[in-house]
Design a protein that fits this description.
about 130 residues; mainly alpha; elongated
Length: about 130
């Protein structure tokens, strides 16, 4: 038989759909923050190379604009989290776990299941939020 009930998969998909606006807003903020770090690094490298200060004005202006956009994105993320959290919590309450099973046997029926080796690696389901200092 199936390892997980299809209705549970559908419930998880409903919750994921409610989470999507938060993920998109978070991705936007992360991208803007990363861009700010990169431009700051470029400015620092150029300064270390003794590039005249006045030639970096345009970069500093772009950095200032990016920081304003990042601030707006952070505020948008907070609003989306607040809006989505109640809906997500309600959906989780509707679909909370009602049964816990305990079994010494594998949930996989090895007689009817086969191992697939031709599947590609899924990169779009992994999220890393790592910073090195």
């Amino acid at each position: 038989g199936n390892v997980i009930a299809l209705e549970k998969v559908e419930q998880l998909m409903e919750i994921a759909e409610l989470q999507k606006p938060v993920d998109l807003a978070n991705d936007r903020l992360n991208n803007l923050t990363l861009s700010c770090y990169k431009i700051e690094m470029i400015i620092t490298q150029m300064s270390n190379m003794k590039i005249p200060f006045w030639t970096l004005w345009r970069l500093r202006g772009e950095l200032s604009d990016l920081k304003k956009s990042a601030t707006e994105a952070a505020m948008d993320l907070a609003e989306v989290i607040i809006q989505s959290e109640a809906d997500i919590r309600q959906k989780k309450e509707e679909h909370r776990q009602t049964k816990i099973g305990l079994s010494i046997e594998s949930p996989i029926n090895w007689e009817t299941s086969s191992i697939k080796t031709d599947l590609g690696i899924s990169y779009d389901s992994l999220r890393f939020d790592v910073q090195y200092f």
